[in-house]
Design goal:
Pfam families: Guanylate_cyc, HTH_77. By secondary structure, the chain is α/β, with parallel strands linked by helices. The protein has 42 helices and 17 strands. It has five domains: about 170 residues, Alpha-Beta Plaits (2-Layer Sandwich); about 140 residues, 3-Layer(aba) Sandwich (Rossmann fold); about 100 residues, no CATH class; about 120 residues, Serine Threonine Protein Phosphatase 5, Tetratricopeptide repeat (Alpha Horseshoe); about 140 residues, Serine Threonine Protein Phosphatase 5, Tetratricopeptide repeat (Alpha Horseshoe). The chain has a seven-stranded mixed sheet with strand order 2-3-1-4-7-9-8. It has a five-stranded parallel sheet with strand order 11-12-13-10-14, sandwiched between helices. The longest helix has 18 residues.
C-alpha cells in the first residue's frame, strides 16, 4: 500500500511530542540515556498505535503522529503519559518528561507527508507545553466529546503562537494520573508580565510613585519597607506596571505569603518564570542560567514571610547578570548586599502641590463613593473624612476598612467613634473599624483586619522587643532616645532596631534628634496586648510618673533651678499629660492627676482650653471620691484655686465663686500663709464681675496689708495686679503706676509670672490713660514681646489690643483697625472674653471707625481678622515708637483743644 493511502486526509488531528530537557538528561545519564530513550519510544508508540495513530516520523526524542479521531488521540496521549509515569525508570531524575500538543484541521497527504500550515500550528502548540502536560488547540477541544469520568479540559485562555496571526485558545487535558499544575505556557509572545489587574482605582502617591519608579529602574535591589497595611504591595505593583516597557524579558510578581518553606522560594520563582526543574541540576543553577543575559524585573511581595529563602535566592540571582532588577516588599529590610531600603510613608494628611485634597482624604472619598453606590460625599462630610484620615494616621488598610464602615455610619459618626473616649479610655481604632474585615485578596488572610495585619509582625518579635512595644503603647506621641533609655533602664538600640526594621516603629529626625513614633492602629494593638499580659496598671503608673517628672522638668533649667515658665515647653507634653490624666481618672492615682492638672494651670487658659481644664478637674474629683486618697489641704487649695480661674476664663461666675471659696477653706485649714495669700488674691475677680468694684478694691488692700507682715507679698502678687486694674478703672493712673513700681521686683522673682510681664502691660495701660504714648509704647512692646516669646497667647491678645489703642491715640488708625481685627480673631480662637478693659477697647474702636470711615475701618479690620496672632504681634512690634518731642507737642495741642480729664 502506498504512503498516500496510508496517511489520512481531510479533517485530521496532528500530535507532536518531545522530551523536555532532553539535552540535560542525556548529559546526566551518559551511556544510560540510550535505553531510557528507547523505552520512552516503546511506551509511547504502543499507546498511540492502539488508538489507530499513524506514525509519520521519529527524530531523536520527538514523535509526529496523525489521527482521524480527535477524542481517541487525546485519550491515547493520556495513556502514554500514565505509562511513562508508571514505568520503573533507573531513578526519578531519569524519568523522561514528555510534552504533547494536538491540533485538528483539514490537510491533504502527498508523497508521504503533509504540506499544511495546520502541521506547523500543531508543532507550536506542543512547543508551548511543559513536560507531562497535554495541550489541545480549540479546534481539537471542540471535537473531543464524551470524555471519561474525571477527565476534562481546562481552558488556559488566548495565546499568541509564533508565526501565526491572531491568538489561539489553548486547553489542558486534566485526567487521573496526570499532573495538574504547570508554569505559564511557553508561547512565543507571552504576556510581558503577570501583574494583577486592579479592581479599585489607585489613589494618590504621585510623588512616591515617581521616586520609587526611578529607584527601581536604576537600582538592582529596592525593598519597599513598611508596616502591614501600609500599601506596599499596591504601590509596588503600580510602579512595576509602569516599568513593563523598560524590561523586555518581563515583569514578574511572586507572592511569598503562600510559601510554607524557605526551600520553595526558588522553585516557586522558577515556576513563575515558566521554567521547569532540569534533571540532576539544582533549581538555583537553572534560575541563574536563565537570568544571565536577560533584562527583567522581579517583584517579590511579602518577603518577611520567607526572609531566609529570599536572601539565599537573591544572593545568587543578582550575580547572574546586571539585567535582573528586584523590587521587593517587606515589613523589614532583607539585609542583602546592594539593597536600597525605601520606607513607605503613610498617605498624606495634607494636600500636596497642586492637589485639592490630601491623598488619604481622596482615598476615603473614592472608596466611600463606591460603597454608597456612586453618591459622592458632600463637603461637610468630607471635612469629617479628614478627621477620620488623621485619626488613622493615613494608613491605607485602615482607610479601606473605615470606608467600608461608612456604608452604615456617617463620616461624622465614624470620626466621633475614632476620636472620643469610651468608658474613660483612649479611642480604639481597632474596635471602631475592624469589624468590617475586608476581603482584600490575601490568601493568608493577614490583611483581613488591622488586628490580623499587626499581629503578623508582633508574633515574630523577640521578648524584649515585644515588651518594649507594649510599653511604648501608653505614650500618646513620639518618644526620644533618652526616654526609651529611661524606660528600659539600659541600652535600647538593638531592641529599637528590631521594632524599626519590622516597621512597628517609625523614626523621625526632623528636629535633628531621633524620635520614635508608633502609628495609632499599631498603638491600639499593642495596648490590647498590654492588657492581655496583665501589665497595664504597672506600665501606665510608670508612664504617669514619667509625665509628672517631665512636667516638673519643663519648669526647671539644666541645674534643676526654676526658670521662667514658657507655655512652649508645655505644648509638646500636652498629649502625654492628657494620656496620664486619662489613666488617673480610670485606674490610676487621682492625687497625681490633680498635680498634673495644677501644673497645667496657666496652659489650659493660654491655649483657650479652660473648659477642658474644668472637665478634667470634675473627673478627678469623682475619681478621688472612689479611691479615698488623701490629698493635703495645701495641694487641694491650689487645685480649687486653679479650677476657679478656669471658671473665670470660661465666664462661669457662680462656679468661679464656689471653687474660690473651697480654695480659701482648704488654704486656711492648711495653715500655710503663702497659700492663703495666693488663693485670696484671686477673689476680687468675681466681685468685679458682679459690679462690686469697691468691695474688690478693699479686699485687695486688706490682703496686701495682711501679707506684708507675714512676708508672703510675693504670693499675693495677683492682688497687686487686681488693685492696679481697679485703680485704672477709676482713672487713678498715677497711683496705679506707683503701686506697680513696687510690684516689679516681686514679679521678677516669680518664674511662673515674670514671662507675662503683667507689670509692664498695666504700666502701659496707665500710660495710655495719661496719653503718654512714648511710655505706653515702650511698656506695651515689652509686654507683648515677652508674652509671645514665652507662649502666653491669651494674654498676648490683651497686649495687641492695647497696642491698637496706642495707635488710635497716635493717629495711626489703619494699623489700629487691623490690630483690633487680629485681636478679635485670636480672642475667638482662644475663647477669651472682653476682660476688664473691654469697654475701653470698644471706645477706642469707635474712635478709630470715626476717624477712618466705615468702609476703610471694616476693610482694615477684616485684613486683621485673617492674620495669625504671630503676624499681628510682628505688625504691632514693628510700629515705630513715637518721638518724645513730637509727642509732647501733640499732647500740648490736644490739651488746648480738649482738656484731659483726670
Amino acid at each position: 500500500m502506498s504512503a498516500d493511502r496510508r496517511l489520512p486526509s481531510g479533517l485530521v488531528t496532528f500530535l507532536f511530542t518531545d522530551i523536555e530537557g532532553s539535552t540535560r538528561l542525556a548529559q546526566m545519564l551518559g551511556n544510560g540515556y540510550r535505553p531510557v530513550l528507547a523505552e520512552h519510544r516503546r511506551l509511547l508508540r504502543s499507546a498511540l498505535r492502539q488508538a489507530d495513530g499513524v506514525e509519520l516520523f521519529t527524530e531523536g526524542d520527538s514523535y509526529f503522529f496523525v489521527f482521524t479521531d480527535p477524542a481517541a488521540a487525546v485519550l491515547a496521549c493520556a495513556e502514554g503519559q500514565r505509562a511513562l509515569a508508571a514505568y520503573a525508570w533507573p531513578s526519578e531524575q531519569a524519568m523522561p518528561r514528555v510534552r504533547m500538543g494536538l491540533h485538528t484541521g483539514f490537510a491533504q497527504a502527498h508523497a508521504g507527508e503533509y504540506a499544511s500550515a495546520e502541521v506547523h500550528r500543531a508543532a507550536r502548540v506542543a512547543n508551548a507545553a511543559h513536560g507531562g502536560q497535554i495541550l489541545l488547540s480549540e479546534a481539537t477541544a471542540t471535537r473531543t466529546r464524551q470524555l471519561p469520568d474525571q477527565t476534562w479540559l481546562l481552558d488556559l485562555g488566548l495565546h499568541k503562537l509564533r508565526g501565526f496571526d491572531g491568538q489561539e485558545r489553548l486547553f489542558q487535558l486534566v485526567a487521573p494520573g496526570l499532573a495538574r499544575h504547570f508554569p505559564r505556557l511557553r508561547t512565543s509572545e507571552a504576556p510581558a508580565h503577570n501583574l494583577p489587574s486592579a479592581i479599585t482605582p489607585f489613589v494618590g502617591r504621585a510623588g512616591e510613585r515617581a521616586e520609587l519608579s526611578d529607584l527601581a529602574a536604576r537600582q538592582r535591589l529596592v525593598t519597599v519597607v513598611g508596616s502591614g497595611g501600609a500599601g506596599k504591595t499596591r504601590l509596588a505593583v503600580e510602579v512595576a506596571g509602569e516599568l513593563v516597557g523598560q524590561f523586555p524579558d518581563g515583569v514578574w510578581l511572586l507572592d511569598l505569603a503562600t510559601i510554607s518553606d524557605p526551600g520553595l522560594v526558588a522553585f516557586t520563582l522558577m515556576n513563575t518564570l515558566g521554567l521547569r526543574p532540569e534533571p540532576g541540576k539544582p533549581v538555583l543553577d537553572t534560575l541563574v542560567e536563565y537570568a544571565a543575559g536577560r533584562r527583567m524585573l522581579l517583584v517579590l511581595d511579602t518577603c518577611e514571610a520567607q526572609l531566609a529563602g529570599v536572601r539565599a535566592v537573591l544572593a545568587q540571582l543578582l550575580t547572574a547578570g546586571r539585567g535582573v532588577h528586584v523590587l521587593a516588599t517587606s515589613r523589614e529590610p532583607l539585609s542583602v548586599p546592594g539593597e536600597v531600603v525605601w520606607r513607605i510613608p503613610p498617605l498624606g494628611l495634607e494636600p500636596g502641590p497642586g492637589a485639592e485634597r490630601a491623598d488619604s482624604v481622596a482615598l476615603l472619598i473614592e472608596r466611600t463613593t463606591a460603597a454608597r453606590g456612586g453618591r459622592v460625599p458632600a463637603e461637610p462630610e468630607i471635612r469629617s473624612l479628614g478627621r477620620v484620615a488623621t485619626r488613622l494616621d493615613g494608613l491605607p488598610l485602615a482607610l479601606e476598612l473605615a470606608a467600608a464602615r461608612l456604608r452604615v455610619l456617617s463620616a461624622g459618626e465614624l470620626a466621633d467613634r475614632l476620636e472620643n473616649e469610651l468608658d474613660g479610655k483612649a479611642p480604639d481604632p481597632l474596635g471602631a473599624i475592624d469589624g468590617t474585615a475586608l476581603a482584600l485578596g490575601e490568601p493568608s488572610g493577614r490583611h483581613a483586619t488591622l488586628q490580623a495585619t499587626v499581629e503578623w509582625s508582633y508574633r515574630t518579635l523577640p521578648p524584649a522587643a515585644a515588651s518594649l512595644l507594649r510599653g511604648l503603647s501608653v505614650f500618646a506621641g513620639p518618644v526620644d532616645l533618652q526616654t526609651v533609655e529611661w524606660w528600659v533602664d539600659g541600652d535600647p538600640l538593638d531592641t529599637l532596631a528590631t521594632l524599626v526594621d519590622k516597621s512597628l516603629l517609625q523614626v523621625g529626625r526632623d528636629t535633628g534628634r531621633s524620635e520614635y513614633r508608633m502609628l495609632d492602629p499599631i498603638r491600639a494593638f499593642a495596648a490590647r496586648c498590654l492588657t492581655a499580659e496583665g501589665e497595664e496598671r504597672a506600665v501606665r503608673d510608670r508612664h504617669l510618673r514619667w509625665a509628672l517628672h517631665r512636667l516638673e522638668r519643663a519648669q526647671q533649667g539644666a541645674d534643676g533651678r526654676p526658670v521662667t515658665l514658657s507655655m512652649y515647653s508645655l505644648d509638646p507634653l500636652a498629649g502625654e499629660l492628657r494620656a496620664a490624666l486619662r489613666w488617673c481618672v480610670t485606674g490610676g492615682s487621682a492625687r497625681l492627676g490633680l498635680r498634673i492638672a495644677s501644673g497645667l494651670d496657666q496652659w489650659w487658659r493660654e491655649r483657650g482650653l479652660a473648659r477642658e481644664g474644668r472637665l478634667w478637674h470634675f473627673r478627678l474629683y469623682s475619681r478621688l471620691a472612689e479611691t479615698g486618697e488623701h490629698v493635703p489641704d495645701r495641694e487641694l487649695a491650689l487645685v480649687y484655686y486653679s479650677h476657679s480661674m478656669h471658671a473665670c476664663a470660661d465666664g462661669e461666675t457662680s462656679e468661679e465663686i464656689r471653687f474660690a471659696q473651697r480654695a480659701e477653706v482648704a488654704a486656711r485649714r492648711s495653715g500655710d500663709a503663702g497659700t492663703v495669700a495666693r488663693v485670696l488674691a484671686g477673689q476680687p475677680g468675681p466681685l468685679v464681675s458682679l459690679g462690686k468694684a469697691t468691695e474688690a478694691e478693699q479686699l485687695c488692700r486688706d490682703l496686701l496689708a495682711w501679707a506684708g507682715p507675714r512676708e508672703v507679698t510675693a504670693d499675693a502678687l495677683f492682688a497687686i495686679y487686681n488693685l492696679a486694674e481697679l485703680l485704672w478703672l477709676r482713672e487713678a493712673y498715677a497711683e496705679a503706676a506707683e503701686l506697680l513700681a513696687t510690684a516689679r521686683p516681686v514679679e521678677a522673682l516669680r518664674p511662673a509670672e515674670r514671662g507675662r510681664r503683667t507689670v509692664d502691660l498695666l504700666l502701659g495701660m496707665a500710660a495710655l490713660g495719661r496719653r503718654d504714648l512714648v511710655a505706653a509704647h515702650d511698656h506695651l512692646s515689652i509686654a507683648l514681646r515677652s508674652r509671645m516669646s514665652y507662649g502666653f497667647h491669651s494674654r498676648a491678645c490683651v497686649a495687641v489690643s492695647a497696642m491698637a489703642a496706642r495707635c488710635v491715640l497716635g493717629g495711626e488708625n489703619e494699623i489700629a483697625a487691623t490690630l483690633f481685627g487680629a485681636a478679635a480673631a485670636a480672642k475667638a480662637r482662644l475663647c477669651r472674653g472682653p476682660g476688664i478693659f473691654g469697654a475701653y477697647w470698644t471706645t477706642q474702636q469707635a474712635a478709630c471707625r470715626a476717624a477712618l470711615g466705615d468702609a476703610a475701618f471694616d476693610a482694615a479690620w477684616a485684613r486683621g481678622f485673617t492674620m495669625s496672632l504671630e503676624d499681628a504681634s510682628s505688625l504691632a512690634l514693628d510700629i515705630e515708637a513715637p518721638r518724645r518731642v513730637d509727642h509732647e507737642l501733640t499732647v500740648l495741642l490736644d490739651g488746648v483743644s480738649q482738656p484731659e480729664s483726670s
